[in-house]
């Protein structure tokens, strides 16, 4: 089988980690894989280093923002690649790659799979953007063989808005990870450790977690790991300084394995304006961590008596941190998280379901 994967940014994040797992699986199966990306980074570098049989093809004109001249160039370049390689499956990731990829494949009679890591018209984005992206998705519907949604929330949203239909079907395949099974790192038992793994950029709200720390009593021994980088990193550093909580926050930058940090943590936190189903929280489940997360997108599918959903309010976030710190049910909450992971979010299940989707498209 020949597969071409397309993603806008081959940097660091949930969609990139998801795609890395897919590429690893297809290489293991002996299939011919090509990775096309716009901005290079963690994903493209790692794939290039670990999988010499995978062709990594950067297209500089494939950019995240709407840019008509660059977009036309990206469509032409990708179309030439697809015409020459004639893949069995074109698998698109991210909204912009989904747009460019489907236009590039138009008329080539290719099987085009689009994984929705959150619709461009999801609640939480601006109303004008919602209308624009809904219109674009409907216009591209006929160019899509199959949709994969990473959450029930996104599948329902696609059906409700007339994007996923009987003629252009889809299914839910949850993000999955492999649990890191090495022994937990030693940590100070007196310190209550929070970890938030997310890029410092919209829609993530590290700023609200930092503000929440300022509402916690001084006598609570809190440490907070902020994992990731991005354009809003320095702004968050400055905010921590202004609120006098910098001693409680460790900005760790991009890390190779989030689960290593989760092994040193008591609670995983993710505050965001909108989401699909974040891999960072699936990794938290795999390490049996209670979760505090925003009540947006498909996150409520991950929370079942193993933590708290919150509104994006710093005081409410602080209240939930205190509740978990004072809880005598932490052992049960941790067991609940790991059971949810085992039942629904393993990497093995995700890969098997995706492979079944490919074979369905080929029949």
Per-chain topology:
Elements: E1 2-9, H1 14-28, E2 32-39, H2 42-50, E3 55-58, H3 68-85, E4 89-93, H4 95-105, E5 111-116, H5 127-140, E6 146-149, H6 152-160, E7 170-172, E8 192-197, H7 206-213, E9 222-227, H8 233-242, E10 249-253, H9 258-262, E11 267-270, H10 279-286, E12 291-294, E13 307-310, H11 314-326, H12 330-344, H13 347-362
Parallel strand pairs: 1-2, 1-4, 2-3, 4-5, 5-6, 6-7, 8-9, 8-11, 9-10, 11-12, 12-13
Helix pairs in contact: 3-4, 7-8, 7-11, 10-12
Kindly describe this structure:
With 363 residues, the chain is an alpha/beta fold. The chain has helices at 14-28, 42-50, 68-85, 95-105, 127-140, 152-160, 206-213, 233-242, 258-262, 279-286, 314-326, 330-344, 347-362, and strands at residues 2-9, 32-39, 55-58, 89-93, 111-116, 146-149, 170-172, 192-197, 222-227, 249-253, 267-270, 291-294, 307-310.
Give a quick precis of the structure.
The chain is built from 13 helices and 13 strands. The protein has helices at 14-28, 42-50, 68-85, 95-105, 127-140, 152-160, 206-213, 233-242, 258-262, 279-286, 314-326, 330-344, 347-362, and strands spanning 2-9, 32-39, 55-58, 89-93, 111-116, 146-149, 170-172, 192-197, 222-227, 249-253, 267-270, 291-294, 307-310. The strands form two sheets. It has a seven-stranded parallel β-sheet with strand order 3-2-1-4-5-6-7, with helices on both faces. A six-stranded parallel β-sheet has the order 10-9-8-11-12-13, sandwiched between helices.
